[in-house]
Amino acid sequence: MADRHVGARIRERRLMLGLSQQQLASMIGVTYQQAHKYERGLNRISAGRLFEIALVLAVPVSWFFEGLNEEGAAQPLGVRQRMCLELARNFALIDNERHQEALSQMARALAAQSQGRPLD
User: 1-65 has which CATH code?
Assistant: First the structure.
């Protein structure tokens, strides 16, 4: 169960960064097939390899275990979490910095409005 959770978190972060499985595989020095097996939780990831993946994906190793409960069961992704992942992935794909900044400002304004506070 933990292997599948860690694999799902790898996939989540990879998508958040806008990377393909092939790109991730190349960055960590494994085949596409091996990266696919890691993400599906079919192959167990060694501590050294997980550390390397964490470096490539710019997260601490502990990030891969967040959301894993004591019994080793993963908490299912909610609709809101899926939307956040999709938003982050699409944001990363925007290559125009002005467009990224405009989207960021819009999100700040909408969040402030939702919380009933004035814009800073």
Answer: 1.10.260.40
